[in-house]
């Protein structure tokens, strides 16, 4: 028996000596130095320190973030160093290596242990309460027996009854207190689990490494490791600040709202924001033949898997918007596969998206073409690619909420005026015409508007190219008011037609100390079928605007605009009045069903 035990011990020692220790892997120090944030991903650059030894060296960088795209790794050497390979691997680990996560996990374990202990105490209290019930039952029967025999000791009975009563009261209070403590501890466990989930996702039991094979000369050095990560994005945001005086410049704070949940912190990095698509393919996609199937089985462009199905124009939508949506989805999938170096799959998706767009061209109407809705409208990433290189190094930790950074500040000269649309609202709004004289493109985004130090509202702004004019609003001005009233309506006949005449009056009141320019807008009915209904403006008391763009784009749709100047304190019986009539002439047999806003 002793020999058997000795042999077993020797075998264990041999196996222990042969098995490599978990700590045998040597990790090279590294730090994140630069990040380019795209619309849905980020390109991270790490500076990796190399050992002093010359020759072939395997360098391990760990931990890599959980959302690293494995096929996106590439490394850059220098004059004295060549990178022969870069690969991605995963290792099972006993516990999460992130310090914050480890602390939260330890806290959860501690709270769970406390809950289990208190639950055991609660169970013991329940058993004690059951024992008291048994004691009470026993006492009752003993009292009956002693009473029957005439041996009742009243003092002992009172003492026993008091003991049972006091114990029940004590146990009840302790039970309530213990249940309250259990509930509180369980709430703390729930809160700690939520904190754990917010710490860039749930606990990780897999470590991710980048393994680099480097050929270098003698002496320590560094190389750059680059990789794409998901769960990172940014979008533009603005703050427009107008001065209290109309001749003051408008300051635009160009901001970026960054979402960073990659699992690693970016500390003191060079940050770049880009709207480009980060593609890793070096060769263009392969153009395939566009087959046409008529009435038979073919390949569905929306199903790039290659399974036989009906052709795109047989059994599939002819709706232009839906076709555009489908092609955009396919192009997004093509882009995702290019990032993962899946060129063949990406090529299939790209050709399928193009097939949908070409079929979509068959479905375009003359009106769609007139709007410029033609080739390439389904492309992902339409518009200019913009890159902002931030001046200062920044720290962007990985967390669940948005983080705001300032890209730059711009000052523009405004041209202020007011706009009234009484058919829609009695409020008069303050507007400013601006021209983007900066060297930056203003991307579409949300804007917060301020007048002096006062918040006046929010707005969504479109894309504004360099040198392009645009208009922004600065909220309602309570010192201006507008109203619209139907003064008269008549119906007459003329030959075989009926004529409806409407007389409207618009009143504009101001309480300002200075004259202000105001655009007043209204509308008349508009009919595409001109021969059926004729609408004519008559007797306007104020001349319509002479703006060429208005005459070209809006007046032809029967939208009315007057450019007026409201004098100081022009209100009450002195309010500025705009009167106009319009006639609707239509055949006696034609009836108007309803009015529709388009």
Task: Describe the overall structure.
With 598 residues, the chain is of the alpha+beta class. It folds into 4 domains: 26-90 and 206-232, Immunoglobulin-like; 99-198; 297-370, no CATH class; 414-598, no CATH class. The chain has 7 helices and 25 strands. Strands 23-25-21-20-17-16-22-24 form an 8-stranded mixed sheet, with no helix packed on it. Strands 1, 2, 4, 7, 10, 13 and 14 form a 7-stranded mixed sheet that branches. A 5-stranded mixed sheet has the order 15-9-8-18-19, with no helix packed on it. It starts with a helix and ends in an 11-residue tail after the last strand.
Give a topology summary.
Elements: H1 2-18, E1 30-37, E2 42-50, E3 55-61, E4 74-76, E5 81-92, H2 99-149, H3 154-198, E6 206-216, E7 221-229, E8 232-242, E9 250-260, E10 266-274, E11 297-299, E12 308-310, H4 320-339, H5 343-363, H6 366-370, E13 387-389, E14 394-396, E15 403-412, E16 415-420, E17 427-435, E18 445-451, E19 454-461, E20 469-494, E21 497-510, E22 516-523, E23 533-538, H7 548-553, E24 559-566, E25 576-587
Parallel strand pairs: 1-10, 8-18, 16-22
Antiparallel strand pairs: 1-2, 2-7, 3-6, 4-7, 5-6, 8-9, 9-15, 10-13, 10-14, 11-12, 16-17, 17-20, 18-19, 20-21, 21-25, 22-24, 23-25
